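Researcher: Let's walk through a ligand-bound prediction step by step. First, I give you the protein sequence. Second, the SMILES string for zinc ion. Third, you return the three-dimensional complex as structure tokens. Ready?
Model: Ready.
Researcher: Here are steps one and two:
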Amino acid sequence: MKRNVRVCPKCRKELTVLGYSQIVRNFQTFRLEKGVAHYEAPGRVDGDDVGEWYCPECDTTLFTNQVDAEKFLQK
Ligand SMILES: [Zn+2]
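Model: Step three, the predicted complex:
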């Protein structure tokens, strides 16, 4: 059986996984309790619709959509 080899185009290392990162904004409440600041757990989290798939070896962004990332791993 042919071995599937996926190689990062930048650092040429073999990859079995990709990294994924997404910028997320946490909405919290802020209040003072006896003069001490309190941040309360997020009530709402908003993120970009799409994050970035990157090489876990060199941190280079390789894909900006899931379809391309899937194709890469399915090679
Ligand atoms: Zn790389």
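Researcher: And what stands out?
Model: The chain has one domain: 19-74. The mean pLDDT is 89.
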